[in-house]
Every structure is written in C-alpha cells, then in structure tokens.
Specification:
236 residues, 54% strand
Length: 236
C-alpha cells in the first residue's frame, strides 16, 4: 500500500502488511505476523502484536501496546499510555515516555531516552544505551545497564544488577544499587547513593580492623599505667 490508511474500528492482520504512507487508527490493531511501515503510525487504541513490527517513521501511541515479538524502530517513539513487551526492542532514535513501560527482554537504544515525572519504566533484562538517558520518574531495572554517554537522574533509580558507564553521571536524587558499579568518567552527586556490594563490605572490614587496633592500643596503655602506679605504691 502507498498512501494513507484510516481505520475507525478493528484491524486484523494475519500475514504481511507493507505500507508506505500514513496509518491512522482509532480502535484496535491485531497483528500476528509482520508489519512493515515506512511513514507514520498514529494510534488511539490498542495494538496487539504477535510477530514483528518494522517502522521507519514515527510512532505516536495514546493507548496500550502489547508485544510478544520484536519491534524495530528507526525514529521517534512517543508513548502516552502503556507498553508491555516480552521480546526485543531495537530503537535508533528517541524514546519519550509519559506512561508506563514494562519490558521483559532486551532494549537496545542508539539515541535518547527521556522519562518524565509521570512515567514509569520497569525492566527485567538488559538495557544498552549509546546516547543520553534522562530520568525524571521511576526506573526499576533487574538486570544489566550498559551506558556509553550521559545519565541524568533527578529522582530515583533502582538497580539490581550491574551498571557499566563510560561517560558522565549526574545525580540529583537517589540511586540504589545492589550489584556492581563500573564508571569511566565523571560522577556528580547532589543526592544519595546507596551501594550494596563487596566493595562496601571491604570498607567495613577495614574499619573494624582499625577499631580493634585502637581498642588494643588503649588497653595496653591502661595496663602499663596500672603497672607503674602499683610499683610506685610498693616503693613508698
């Protein structure tokens, strides 16, 4: 198809659909195989995908997207609703989140990820970012975060895994990490950084050793003083 497709109802696709134009949908889109779009996809409803979606344009979603497969995007993704994914998301552009994004898989981003205060990103997998990551909402990750760029955090980031960074980390909120932090760059902190790792345990062990040394030294000093006092009393 080459042109414009306007749908006000339900669209069921059980094959391959190639569109070079604009798709406007106000209803429900059910896709079981492959959708190739070179243009713009505007949705105000529900998108159920059990296959592959290849988009070279712009995706504007004001509703719910349920995906069990692979999503390849080479542009901007604007989300004002809910996105549920169990698969792989490859994005070469910009991702704007003003809603809820639940991912159980892998997210590869070559661009910019913007999370607003009214947005939430929940992830169980791997996040690879080659660009800029701006977080003004809640970000929960149970996996690995690999960043080659800049991370700007204004509120809270909860990570249960590994954080690998080659760039700049600006923190104006709270970062909770239960894993390993590898940073090759600059760390600017105006908030709270909580680390639960083996490195923090080693620091506590060294503190305990120093405290025991101080206690032993004080005990030795007091014992020598007592011995001197007893000797002076006996001499008198």
């Amino acid at each position: 198809m080459r042109g414009e497709l306007n749908v006000r109802g339900q669209l069921n696709l059980r094959g391959q659909f190639n569109l070079r134009g604009q798709l406007n949908l106000r209803g429900q889109l059910n896709l079981t195989e492959q959708l190739n779009l070179r243009g713009e996809l505007n949705m105000r409803g529900e998108l159920n995908l059990r296959g592959q979606l290849n988009l070279r344009g712009q995706l504007n979603l004001r509703g719910q997207l349920n995906l069990r497969g692979q999503l390849n995007l080479r542009v901007h993704l604007n989300l004002r609703g809910e996105l549920n994914m169990r698969g792989e998301l490859n994005l070469r552009g910009q991702l704007n989140l003003r809603g809820q994004f639940n991912l159980r898989g892998q997210l590869n981003l070559r661009g910019q990820l913007n999370l607003t205060e009214q947005g939430e990103l929940n992830m169980r997998g791997e996040l690879n970012v080659r660009g800029q990551l701006n977080l003004r909402g809640q970000f929960n990750l149970r996996g690995q975060l690999n960043l080659r760029g800049q991370l700007n955090l204004t509120e809270q980031l909860n990570l249960r895994g590994e954080l690998n960074m080659r760039g700049e980390l600006n923190l104006r909120g709270q970062l909770n990490l239960r894993g390993q932090l590898n940073l090759r760059g600059q760390l600017n902190l105006r908030g709270q950084l909580n680390l639960r790792d083996s490195s923090t345990r080693e620091d506590s062990s060294t503190r305990d050793d120093s405290s025991t040394r101080e206690d032993s030294s004080t005990k030795e000093d007091s014992s020598t003083r007592e011995d001197r006092s007893t000797r002076e009393d006996s001499s008198t």
